[in-house]
């Protein structure tokens, strides 16, 4: 979905005059690349020494056991407003390795608990990277808990909730559908689809395709996903939602869930969550918010109003690997329920993993909440990044992405041959490029086949030249247009200028 930064080019002229949008400076990158390279080199040295050499030494201990409460104090898990020095972040890497379980091959005479023995060498870096019980992943279990707690604070869930990290937002949306269905019909877990009536759910025409995929996978059926019309900006129309609910009930179906989208994939639209929540309460429906893309706006005081009402959602999907740029994959699924609904829905009570008579608090054995067994410790990536940057810097990054999108939109409106699809609400900037041969044609020209081929032709040329990558697509009755997604803190207004200049260069003779 993201557009890749341009490479160096003789035509890419760096301009020095400062540009400010909403108080945000847009000139030049914001990251110190040399400092980042130094950090990577030092962290790799720590990994080689502590995670490879020491962890594969049979004379070393398999673990340095600490109870959950003791380990919380040692690790200082709280995510704060300010970032930490590089030296402190490197120490946190050492601590994460030190208090994790060592499962490498040379330890197999000591670590024989599960099928988790690792081969030395290339896989040793991941030698303690599986999450299902506290005893196997003490550090990452607590880090996941801390990150989810902080994210729930931004959702406005004052009493907290529950959640896990998943391998992708599509999986998070599937979890939402499964949990919502289980909440509506608990018998389905044991008796299956034969025990329930025809269940239907509702989502906007702009929703992510994972919603229909999840309905197919879970046996709900894609025809039982009622598509609610959206307005011209791509937002679900609440009145149309209520009409669809009434229609489904009149047909004898049983509604159980509404999916609202916070940041649609193409247009970056935010459904009116507050109004949708009112309807869900009226009809006793589970409200899930797919905020995989738009959730990051919650960190911005300027822009969190886009998700007004999200505190009323029953579940939320939010991907820090998108706008916040945590390393792939990093996807959280959260439920406002605190009664153990997530675990009841998915648990199988495997007796070889989730014994109830362990010597520590087994509520930290989170694996039975998941449809998987072991999971990657994805929360660690976000936790370490948050520790390094702090909440304030994350907020600045979000604000800068919004400002950069506004700058690009302004430039598009100034330039001959470019036309904005609509004013961006988020970091999605959609626009047409009209080559000189079509500029004096009537407005209807944008509907002609020749106009339809502009996007693919320019995309082919930029790919073969290797200068940049920008996505395009048609949408509804709109012919192919370019879609820029602006998130990287390294992107500058000079990069935005280059993108428009390069598209114009590549399309001049079309």
TrEMBL record:
Q: Which GO terms describe its biological process?
A: carboxylic acid metabolic process
Q: Which organism is it from?
A: Myripristis murdjan
Q: What is this protein called?
A: Glutamate decarboxylase like 1
Q: Give all N6-(pyridoxal phosphate)lysine modified positions.
A: 322
Q: Which GO terms describe its cellular component?
A: cytoplasm
Q: Which cofactor does it need?
A: pyridoxal 5'-phosphate
What is known about its subunit structure? Homodimer.
The keyword Lyase is annotated on this UniProt entry: yes
